[in-house]
């Protein structure tokens, strides 16, 4: 599968800017430690929370307890946005991933993801049935978000906004 091609949005970019390559976005998603997950409550108010996520298999993966607010929100509306980047104003790349959160229930995929969580975040999960379990008792549902749209905001000179769309 070839890398998606970005489209520069000249309205929000320096006149000398070019579209950021997908490799920059892939690198940011692969090495980010914290993402901000945006979901929608039943009464349509937004809910935003920080969490670690893992970029693998063409999707961003995160986990949550079924009874947590984000878990409840996802039951009703699986459309989400995940953001990551840097606190720097004049350097770095901020990335927004929009898509639909889908449960991951395949035991072999969950086992692979648990290994990635350990490698990237030093979190210990075991797989029991179709969930992650931490410390033998805390169950977490695992979700995958395949990008529908990705926005990449290049900060510094030249500043840029690149959009990637997925079929």
Quick description:
The protein has 167 residues and is of the alpha+beta class.
Helix/strand/pairing class, anyone? Answer: alpha+beta
Number of helices: 3
Q: Tell me the overall shape.
A: globular
Question: What would you report as the Rg, rounded to the nearest angstrom?
Answer: 17 Å
- How much helix, percentage-wise, in residues? 10-25%
- Please name the CATH topology: Pnp Oxidase, Chain A
Q: Give the low-pLDDT segments.
A: none
Keywords: Oxidoreductase
Pfam families: PNPOx_N (PF01243)
Protein name: Pyridoxamine 5'-phosphate oxidase family protein
Q: Could you please describe the fold and organization of this structure?
A:
The protein has about 170 residues and is an alpha+beta fold. The chain has a single domain, classed as Electron Transport, Fmn-binding Protein, Chain A (Pnp Oxidase, Chain A, Roll), CATH 2.30.110. The chain is built from three helices and eleven strands. The two termini are about 15 Å apart. The mean pLDDT is about 95.
């Amino acid at each position: 599968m070839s890398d998606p091609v970005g489209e520069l949005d000249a309205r929000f970019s320096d006149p000398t800017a070019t579209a950021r390559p997908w490799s920059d976005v892939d690198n940011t998603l692969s090495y980010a430690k914290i993402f901000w997950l945006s979901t929608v409550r039943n009464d349509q108010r937004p809910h935003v929370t920080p969490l670690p996520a893992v970029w693998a298999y063409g999707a961003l993966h995160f986990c949550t307890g079924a009874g947590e607010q984000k878990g409840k929100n996802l039951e009703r509306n699986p459309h989400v946005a995940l953001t990551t980047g840097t606190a720097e104003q004049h350097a770095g790349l901020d990335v927004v991933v929009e898509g639909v959160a889908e449960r991951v229930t395949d035991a072999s995929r969950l086992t692979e993801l648990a290994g990635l969580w350990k490698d990237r975040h030093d979190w210990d999960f075991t797989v029991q049935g179709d969930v992650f379990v931490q410390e033998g008792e805390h169950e977490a549902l695992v979700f995958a978000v395949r990008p529908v749209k990705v926005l990449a905001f290049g900060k510094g000179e030249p500043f840029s906004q690149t959009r990637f769309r997925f079929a």
